Amino acid sequence: MKSKVAIHHLDTYGESEIEEGLRSLLTNLGGIEALIPSRTRKVLVKPNLVFPYSWDTGITVNLTLIAKLVQMIKRAGIEVIIGEGGGLEKFGRDSLKKIGAEKLAKELGVPLYDFKKGKRVKVKIAQGKKVKSVTVDRVVTECDFIISVAKLKTHCECLVSLSLKNMKGLLCSEKQRLRFHLLDVNHCLVDLNRVFKPKLAIVEGLIGLEGIGPLPPGRPVDLGLLIGGQDPVAVDAVCAKIMRLEPDQVKHIKLAAEAGLGTIDLGKIEIVGEKLEDVIPEHFETPPSSIEGISPYEKIQIVAGKPCSNCVIGLASYLHGYFPKELIEQATSEVRVLVGAKARIKGTGNEIAIGNCLRRYKGKLPYISGCPPASDHYGSLIEDGLRGKFIVNRDMVRSALDRFFQEP
Ligand code: SF4
C-alpha cells in the first residue's frame, strides 16, 4: 500500500484559514477520528518550538496551528499534552514561556511539558545502530500516540529539519544531544525514530526557512503550505522535494528509509490535495553540503571535527551577520577556525580553537571556551588574525609563562 501524504495550500494565515487548512489536510488523510484510534490513552503533540523566535521568522511552528490541532483532538475525546525539550541554553530555560506556548497551553487547558525539566527515564533501542538507549521525560513514555508538528526549515548540519529531526526535541539531556553529534547525528536520529516514530507527522510550511538554518542567517520564505501524513519518512521526502532536494540527498531521511521506517520512493507515495509540482518554489536555497562551506570567505577556513549544530549555528550567524565584511579586502592573513571535538591542528598559520570539546588546545592555540562558545569572543580573535596580528590570548601567555618558570 502507498504512503499517503497530503498537501494543502493557504493564501492567508488568519485563525479561520489555518483551522480550515488543517481540517482539510486531515480530512484528506481520513479525518482525525480515523487517524487517532479511539483506544489511544494519551496523545503527545510535539511542536518545533525549539528557539524563542516567532513563527513568521521561519524558525518555529505557528501557535494557532497547534491550538487548532489540540482542540480537534480534545473534541475527539482523547487526552492530549504538548511537549518540547529542544533549545540552546543561551536562550534560557524558559523558551516556551517567551514564545507564548505556556499561555497557549493554559488557554487550551492542556499540560505543557518542558522535557528538559521533567523526570527522566531511559528507553532502550534494541535495533539501535549508534545509540542503544535514550533518556526522555517519563511523560513521553506514557503517550501512545505522538504527533510531530515540525517546521519546514533548513539545517546547517542535517540539511533539513522536518518530522524525523523534530523528534530530537524529546531528548531531555544536553549530554545526550552532544553525543548524537559526536556519534553522527544522522544515524542517531534514525535510532531515535525507531522507538519514537510519530504516528502522524504534520509539517508547517506556511512560512519556511531557507539558507543556513535553523536560525538566522536562514531567511523566512512564504510558501503557504501544510504537509502531513502517517509515514513521517514519506512526509519528509515530499518536503525535501518542496525544498528542491532529492530525498536521498538528505542522509537521515535516506537512512530512515533504509531502516524500514518509511518510504522515500515517490512512486510509492500517494500525494493528495495539491499537486507536488505546483507547490515547488522556483528557488529554495539549502545550506552548503559540508560544514566547511558555511564560511563565505576563502580567508576564513572552518576545520570541522564533527561539531554540534549549536557551534555551527553560532559560527554561521557571526560570519554571515556580524562579521565586518570590509575586513576581508584588507586581510593580510588567513585564519583557520577549529570547531568540534575531532578537529585537528595543522600547526602553521593563524589557527584558533573554539568550544569546550577542544579544550586540549588551551594554552597551545588561541582558544575560546564555551559550549557553545560566544561568537563575540572568538569573533575578535578571527578579526585580529585576518589583520595579520599574531593571535595570542591570555591562556597562551599563561601557559608560556608556566613553561618558562618550570624550566630549570
Ligand atoms: S563546544 Fe560546540 S561542538 Fe563542542 S560539544 Fe559544545 S556545542 Fe558541541
Summarize the structure.
The chain has 16 helices and 15 strands. With 408 residues, the protein is α/β, with parallel strands linked by helices. The protein is globular and about 75 Å long.
What does this structure look like?
The protein is an alpha/beta fold and 408 residues long. The chain folds into 2 domains: 3-279, LarA, N-terminal domain (Rossmann fold, 3-Layer(aba) Sandwich), CATH 3.40.50.11440; 291-406, Rossmann fold, CATH 3.40.50. Helix content is 34%, strand content 22%. Strand 7 and strand 8 form a beta hairpin. Helix 1 (15-28) crosses helix 3 (63-75), helix 3 runs parallel beside helix 5 and helix 9 packs across helix 11. The structure holds iron/sulfur cluster (SF4). Iron/sulfur cluster (SF4) binds next to helix 8 and helix 13.
Report the biggest beta sheet as strand number plus sense, adding barrel if it closes: 9 strands, mixed
Distance between the termini: 78 Å
Amount of helix: 25-40%
Average predicted local confidence, pLDDT: 92
Shape: globular
CATH topology of the largest domain: Rossmann fold
How many helices?
A: 16
The CATH class of the largest domain, by name, is Alpha Beta
